[in-house]
Structures are given as structure tokens and as C-alpha cells.
Predict the structure of N-acetyltransferase domain-containing protein.
Amino acid sequence: MFTMKRLADCTITEAVQAWNEGFEGYYFDMKMTPDSFLKRLGTYGLSATHSVVAFDGDQPIGLVVNGIRTAKGIKLAYNGGTGVKMSYRNDGVGQLLMDEVLAIYQRENVQLATLEAIKENERAISLYKKKGYEIVDYVDHYQAMNFTPIIVADSPYTYTNAYKWEITSLDFYNERAPWQTQCDHIPDAQYVLAKDERGEVVGYAVYRSAVDPHKKKLITTLMQCEVNEGNGQRTCYDGLLTQVFHPSKEMIRLAACIQQSNETLAKALADWGFERTVEQVYMTKAISS
């Protein structure tokens, strides 16, 4: 008989075993150490209290890692990873985990649950659909394979570095962007504002830069980029991309979790020589009180 425990009631050894065995054979190498697992929880605002581990006897056989936050008056939940040990993947463990998770969401008065899944992971997507999730968007991950920046001459926009609070207080800040692209969940994030000729903020970008210790190269990853402007929208996007990716510098250029519904940004990235490396579905479920 399978039992459920909150992650907070498990040892770190049990938690890491559940994660590593749960994601065995996944599309990417998801293996973690205790240190990297704890770092992931902290970085992405994931909650041990609201996360669940499945057991068969005393052996962990699966888990769901969750985060809960309130954004603009809406209580949101995020499924930051569902994994089931390979030998148990036909035994209904995933459904039991999701039932437990959704019960937690309801008790916590969550209003909207979100998650992403690899587009090809039809088994997981089918499970989420059974539990009431719907695909509302797709998100893409990019890398600049043939970097061809578009420099705009005589731009009507000016660009300045900014603080996090200046971004998150904007009326058009995208609170519904994927969880890991939210400002609170990006270590060492950097911010850029775009202003029009009247000095009004019309766009922003959120990104991070770090040095790859193996390749000894700077890696810059765009996490969010939004423009609240009419006819000049594409010009503003090109200017923000210039500020983020510094055409004169040598670096690896990436973009993470870019929503396909932002068609202007997706087109700009393609024009700049970015190619999609991973496609995910973005799913949500309204939680009734």
C-alpha cells in the first residue's frame, strides 16, 4: 500500500532519492545532490511543507515539488516537478500524487495552479489533463546559433538599468509568466527599463548573466521581456535585446520560457538568430473553493 508524506517530514536522503529515481530516463539529466536539491527549493520558492513524497513501505517512489505565492491578489500554485520511480510508473502513483497535491491546493485556498511539461511528454500531459489542467500556452527555450543583432538607429526609446521593485510594480508586469521567470526566483537577476520620449516606461527585460566554469564563457539568459507599446513595439523589443545581449561582447546567449503568445518577441528572437531548443506546454487549472 502506498502512503504519502509531506516533503518537510522526509529526510534529505529520501527526498533526493525520490527526485533522482523519479526523473530517471527523463529528457534531460535531472540528477541532484542534497545541496543542489535544497538550492533548487530555495531559488524557485518551492515549499517542503506543500510538497509531497510517495512511499512504498519505507522506500520513496515518487514526488511532486510545489510552490505557492500570491500575485496581484491571486493565490497561485506551481508544480515544480512530478517524478515517479520507473518501476512504479504503471501503478497509478502519479495519479495519487496529483490527487494529494490538488487537495493541498484546495486547503490552502489556491485559485490557480500552473505547470510546464515537455511537449513530447504525452504521458505526463495526459495525466495533468485528467486532473483538470488545460494547455493555455506554449513556452520555448532558445539559443543564439547564428547571432545577428538588429541595431535600431535613431530609436525613440531610452534604456536604463533598474531595480526589481521598479519592474514588479509595473501595471504590465507579467505575473502569469512561468514561475521560474518571476523576479523573485532568479538569482542575481538584472533589469532594464525602456522609456518613451515622454519618459514613460513602456517596456522591460529581466535577465541573468553568469560565467560557465567549464567553458569559461559568459552565459546570458533572457527570462522576461515585455513591451506595453503600440506601433513601436518591435523597435522597443530590439532595443531591449540589444541591452541584454550586448552585440559587441562574446558570450553564450539564451532565452528561457518565452511564451509563444508573445509573438512579437518570438519573431524578434528568430530574426536575431535564436533557435528553439526545447518546447513546453504551459498548463493551468482553476481551483474551486
